[in-house]
Amino acid sequence: MGSHRRLAPSSGPDRGALAAAGLLSAAAAALVAVPAAATPYDDTRTEVDRLYREAEKATEAYNAADERADALRRRAGTAQDGIARQQERINTMRESLGALAGAQYRSGGLDPSLALLFSDDPEDYLDKASVLDRITTRQAGELRELKSAMRSLAQDRAETARTLGALERSRKAAAAHKRTVERKLAEARRLLDSLPPGERAAHDRATRSGRSGLPGPGTAAPASGRAAAAVAAARSAVGRPYVWGANGPGGFDCSGLTQWSYAQAGVALPRTSQAQRHAGRQIPLSEARPGDLVLYRSDASHVGMYMGNGQVVHAPYPGAPVRYDPVGMMPVSSVTRV
Predict the structure, then answer these.
(1) Which residue among the candidates 4, 177, 203, 254 is catalytic per the annotation?
(2) Which of the following is catalytic: 4, 177, 203, 314?
(3) Among the options 4, 177, 278, 302, which is catalytic?
(4) DSSP annotation of 309
(5) N- to C-terminal Cα separation, the chain
(6) Segment (H or E) for 332
(7) What is the DSSP track for 206-233?
(8) How confident is the model over 128-183, as pLDDT tens digits?
(9) Which residues contact 306 (CB under 8 A, 6 or more apart)?
(10) What residue spans in the chain does CATH classification 1.10.287 cover?
(11) Peptide bond before residue 249 is cis, with ω within 30 degrees of 0
(12) What sign does the CA torsion over 261, 262, 265, 270 have?
């Protein structure tokens, strides 16, 4: 009967060891796959970006309120000039009617039949009576004209009062938006200054990143002569400071830069980026040419001018001068050809 021998233990790892090793490897892989927690600096940069976005929206709201206030101010001034001229005309009409009434009273103080009876020259009396009749008819017509002028004056005064009321509300809205902008920009600046220099530089680089969404560098020409003139003006503004609420020439906010640039080409653009979106024909980003306006974010709260080669010139935010950046630096909502 053959003897049975026990097999010697294997020198390699057993199943338990292999299972343990597998678990450790999976755990290590899971740790690697978990993204690193956001640093306080990341949170600060995110908050700075949010404050800048909100400040820019408030800036455009301020620009809109300020533009409306300017229009109302001009309208009220024109209306007040018109009221003054109308009042002068009414005063002249009153004086004329007073003179006519006096002449009528003096001529009509005696009964016409008695005046004819005692007149030395009946024909002269009849001539005077005819003139008096014409004066009475003219007086009645001028009186009607005076009443109409006075009604029109009253309506104009009421409309001007409403315009002045709207102007005051617009001024208050602009002042409120201004306070909002100043508060958000001050907070953003405080947070940005709290970052170490390296983090501030990283934040600036991050704001300039993005893909152009356009073909590679090319030699696209402006779509028109006025676009070419606007491009030249925008290039000349590179390096000038961002100044919120300003439209040049010493400083600019985003829509102020594009408005000023096209003004140098003889084209009057609206003051706000939202209105500039509709200042021309909208085209696909892939067809953008130098001079086209590139609107950013879904609310069109930022605008730059396309310069070719996947670049825009824009006024970014306080502390950052007018500069070139990739057209895809933030989400593009539309492109407008003026």
Answers:
(1) 254
(2) 314
(3) 302
(4) T
(5) 106
(6) strand 332-337
(7) HHT-----S-SS--PPPSSHHHHHHHHH
(8) 555 555 556 666 666 677 677 777 777 877 887 887 787 788 778 777 877 887 78
(9) 288, 289, 290, 291, 292, 293, 294, 312, 327, 335
(10) 40-193
(11) yes
(12) negative
pLDDT confidence tier of residue 209, bands split at 50, 70 and 90: very low
The CATH classification of domain 210-337, taken from the options 3.90.1720.10, 3.40.30.10, 3.40.50.1820, 3.90.1010.10: 3.90.1720.10
Q: Is 302 a catalytic residue?
A: yes
How far is C-alpha 232 from the geometric centre of its chain's CA atoms? 23
Which alpha helices (H) appear in 194-212, and where do they start and end? 197-207
Query: Is the pTM above the cut of 0.85?
Result: no
- The topology (CATH level 3) of 40-193 is Helix Hairpins (1.10.287)
Half-sphere exposure of residue 3, counting CA atoms within 13 Å on the CB side? 3
Task: List the one residue out of 51, 49, 40 whose CA is nearest residue 187.
Answer: 51
Model pLDDT for residues 303-316, shown as the tens digit of each residue: 999 999 999 999 99
Phi, psi of 57 (to 5 degrees): -60, -45
CATH 3.90.1720.10 domain range(s) in the chain: 210-337
Q: Is 254 a catalytic residue?
A: yes
